[in-house]
Amino acid sequence: MLESKGAIMSDRISGGCLCGSTQFETNREPVMQILCHCTDCQTVSGSAFYTAYIVPLESVTLTKGEPGGFSVKSDKGRDNRRRFCKDCGTRLWAELEMGFASVNGMALDDRSHFNPTHNHRLETAPGWCALNALLETLPITP
């Protein structure tokens, strides 16, 4: 448990899909929070970037429903398993090859908790995308 201004709060944070049939919990303190501009994340999010709330995969627990899933190779050749609500299609998280989950920061019940710390894959960001130059940029890994 964590303390905030004298009140005790959980070390977990909840999230879920748009229709409410699939819900989860994960760590309140992520490894990092990324705006990912890779082409896969652009396609999945329908935007110039995806809000990636990175946590250890084993920290993600279902509290309601059972998500669908499919496996893809990222544009860098890594295996990723995408998890989504089978009823409404909301992207919930990706299970990354390295033992992490890339949770959709906008699927958190408290969206204000997502606060990006890094940009990633700026080389594939659309030319029209306004970039947050205050964020640290992650190096590209092979």
Walk me through what this model shows:
With 142 residues, the chain is mainly β. The chain has one domain: glutathione-dependent formaldehyde- activating enzyme (gfa) (Alpha-Beta Complex). It has one helix spanning 39-45; strands spanning 2-4, 7-9, 12-16, 23-27, 32-36, 50-56, 61-64, 68-73, 79-84, 91-96, 100-104, 118-120, 136-137. An eight-stranded mixed beta sheet has the order 8-9-10-11-6-5-12-13. It is globular.
Number of domains: 1
Q: In what order do the strands lie side by side in the largest sheet?
A: 8-9-10-11-6-5-12-13
**Rg computed from alpha carbons, rounded to a whole number of angstroms:** 15 Å
Oligomer: single chain
- CATH superfamily placement: glutathione-dependent formaldehyde- activating enzyme (gfa)
What is the terminal-to-terminal distance?
Answer: 38 Å
Q: What is the CATH C level class, in words? A: Alpha Beta
Q: How many E strands?
A: 13
Q: Which fold name corresponds to the CATH topology? A: glutathione-dependent formaldehyde- activating enzyme (gfa)
Structural class: mainly beta
Order of helices and strands: EEEEEHEEEEEEEE
Q: Architecture, according to CATH? A: Alpha-Beta Complex
Note the overall shape. Answer: globular
In this structure, how is the largest beta sheet organized? 8 strands, mixed
SS strand fraction? 35-45%
Report helical residue fraction: under 10%
